[in-house]
# Entry
Amino acid sequence: MTLWRQIKNAFFTALCSSSVLFLAVALMLFLFPMLWKGSKAVFFRKTVEFDKMQKELFKRGKAEDLERRTAQTNQARREALDLLEHFSRGIDTALLSREARSAYQQLGRHLRYLEVADEEYARLREQAKEIRDAFLQALDTVDKAEAESLLDTVDAQRSNSRFQNSPFEIVFSLSKQYRQILQEIDLSRRSEYAAELDIVKTEMRKLFGPLPGESVPPLPQDRFGATRWDVAQKHLHYLIYQTKWVPSGKDDKRLIPKQIRRDDPDEGIFGKTELAPLFSMVEQNLAAMLQPRPTIYWRYFLDDSTAGHYFGGAGPEVLGTLLLTVLSMCFAVPLGVLSAAYLVEYAADGITTRVIRTCINTLAGVPSIVYGLFGLAFFVLMVGKPCILSASMTLALLVLPVIIRASEEAIRAVPQSYKEASLALGAGKFRTFLTVTLPAAGPGILTGIILSLSRAAGETAPILFAGAVALGPIPNIGLHLKWLFQPTRALSYGCYDITVGDRLAMQVPHNQFGMVMTLILLVLVLNLAAIFLRWRMSRKLQGI
Amino acid sequence: MTTAVSQSDEAVRFPRPLRLTFRDDLRSTLLSWFVKSFLFVVTFCSVAAVLLIFVFVIRQAAPFFTESGVSPRERITEFLTSRRWFPEHQAHPEYGILAIIAGSFYVTVTSLLIAVPTGLLAAVFLSDIASFRTRQVCKPLIEILAAIPSVAYGVFAVMVVAPWLQKHLGFSTGTNALNASIILSIMAMPTIISVAEDALTAVGREIREASYGLGATRAETLLRVVIPAAHSGILAAVILGMMRAVGETMVVWMASGNATQIPSPWWDLSQSVRTMTATIAGELGEVPQGTIHFHSLFAIGLVLLIFTFCLNLLSEHFILQMKKSKR
# Structure
C-alpha cells in the first residue's frame, strides 16, 4: 500500500516536472527554427551580384573592385552564355526570322543608297523577298526534308553577286547556321524544346541577371542574378533538373515525379543537342561565375527594402516600431506612474477605488482587436486619419494597465521607513513621493516600462487600422512634427504582411524570416534586460 | 560630546518656525488637496478609457441594429442564431455569427484542454516541487514565452506547424482549428501558470504542514488539500487564460484557416474555422466606413467586449474570494 502511494507520488512529481519541461521544449521548438531561418538574412554567402545590387540600389562598395570582379565573372560566364545564345537561335526561330526580316529591309535602304535604277530595284527586291520567304518557311516547317529543300533554294542564290557585300548577305549565313541546327535537333519536338528552353533561360536570368543583349528590366529584382549563394544553388537545381511524371510501377498507373537531368543522354530533353555541355559547365563553374563570399549583412536592420522585400532589409520597420513604442510610452508612463502613486498613497479602500481597480483590470482584459476597433472609432476620428499619433495612443492605452500594475508593485515594495523618514523631516506627502519613493521604486518601474515596451512592439491587432501600413515612405523625423500625422511601417504588421499578404516575399524566405527574427530579437533583448534588472534588484534587497 | 552639542545648536538654528501660521497651513492644505485631486483625475483616465471604449464601440455598432427596414429584434435574432455570414452579398446580405462564435469556442476550448492541465501541473511544480534555483531559471523561461509577440507565433503556425501537420498527420489543410489551438494553448499557459501559482502559494504553509504531519505524500497533499483550498484562484487562472485565448487575434487569423463553418462531425479539429477576432481583423480593413457591414463588425466587437468584460468580473470575483479565504 505504501509502495503504491509512493509510486503515485513519484508519478505526480514526474508529471509536474515534465509539464515545465514541455514548456521549455515548446520554447526551443519555436525559437530555434525562427531564429535560425531568420539569421540567414544576416549571415550568408554573398555573390558578386549582391555587390552589384548594393552598388546600384544603395550606392555602396568600391567601384574598381566591383569592376574587376564583374570582368572576372563575365569571363567565366561567357562560354555558357554564348552557347545558350547560339542554341536558342535554332529553337527560338523568332530571333532568326526577325534578323532575316530586318536584313530584307536594310537591303532596300542599301539599294536606294547605291541609287539603283527602279526596274533593277524592283527585280532585286522581288528576288530577295522570295529568298526571305523561303527561309521563313524553312523556319516554320516541322518537316526536316522540306526545310532542307527550302534552304537549298535559299543557298542557290548565294552566288548572286548583287547580294554579296550587301546587308542581305546575313540571310545566307543564317541559313547555313540553321542547316547545322537542323542536323542536331528533332524538328517535331521544337515546341517542346522551346518551352524547356524558356525555363532554362529564366533560370539563367535568375542566376546571372539579364542575358547579354537584353534591355534593363524595370523591376529591381530582375536586374540582378542570384545575390546569395543558397539562392544560386536553388536555381542551379532548377536549371539542371526537370521533373518528369512517370508511372510508379508496372501495374500501378499512379504517376510519381522523377527528377532527371536535362542533359541526360537518354532521357534528358537536351541530352543529344548542342546545349548539353551548358549544364555541367554551369554546375562546375558556378563558383567562378558568381564568386561567393561569406558576409555579415548587419545593415539588414537599417536598410530600406525594395518592393516586396526582395532586396534590402527591415530598417523602416524597425524605425516605425521604435517611434510607435517610444511615443506610446510618452503617453502611458506619466499616466501609469501617477495612477499607481494615487492608488498606493492616496486611495482609501472605498467604492471609488474598487471601481477604478475593476476598470484597470477590464482594460487589461480587453482583446487587442477591440483596441483596434476603438483606435479606429476614437483616435483616428480625433486625429483625422490613421497615423503614427493615433496608433501610438492606441498602444498607450493597451499598455497602461501593465505600467500601472508594475509601478504599483514597485511603489509598494519601497520600505515604509523611507517614507516615514522623509515625512519626519517635514516633507509633504507628494514631495516625499517625488524625491524618496519614486527614486527608490525606480528600477521596479523601469522593469515595468521595459516589459510594456516589448508588449507594445509586438502588438499587431491594435495598429492594424490605426496607422500601420505595409508600404510607405519612411517618416522624416524632425521638429516640424508633421511625421506624427503620417502612417508608418511597423515590424509587427510587416511580419504579418510578409507572411500572408506579400506574394513576392514568399520567394525570399530569408527576408521573410529575417523580419520575424528582428521582432523576436527586439522583444527578447527587452525582456532579458528586464529580467536582469529584476535580478539585480532582488540581490540588492537581499543585501548581497 | 562636543559634536553632539554642535548638532543641537544646528537644530536650534532650524530656519523654519515650528508653529505654522494660518497662511502656511492653508497653503499646504490647498496644495495637498490639489495634488490629490490631480492624481485622482489622472487615475480616472483608466475609468474614462473603459467608458470611452464601451461608448464608441456601441456607437459604431448601433446603426447595425437600428438599420431601417429591419426590426432590431429580428436583427439580433439573426445575428446570434444564424450560421450564414454573407455581409458582402449585393441583394440579400446575411449577418449570422453563430458559426463564428462557434469557431471562437472551438479554438478556445481546445486550447484550454491543453493549457489548463499542463499549466496547473507547471504551477504546482513551481510552487511546491522546484528548488529556489530551479525557479530562478523557470520563471524567466515562462516570461519569455509570454512576451513573444502573437504575430511571431502566427508566422510560426503558418510556416512551421501547418506544413508539419499537413505532412505528418495527413490533413488536407495545415491551417485549421487544431493548429490555432496548439499555439493558443502555448500563449495562454503563462497567464494560467502565474495566476495559479499565486493561488497555490497563497494557501499557506500551515495547511501543507498539517497534511504532511498526518502522513500524506506530496501528491496527496497537493491533490486533496492544496488544490481544493486554492480552487477559487485556480478558477480565476483558467478564466484569465480563457480571456487571453478568446481575445487573441493574429494567431487565429493566420492559423485557423478562416472558413465560416461549424466543423462536421463536430469533433473534427482538422477543419478550418473562423473566429470573431479574425473576422474583425480580416474584414475591417476592406469595408468602406459607414456601411452596414462596417457596423456589423463593430457589433461583433461588442459581443467580444461584453464577453470578456463578464469573464473579467468573474475572475475578479474569484480572486477576491481567494484573498478573503486567505485572511
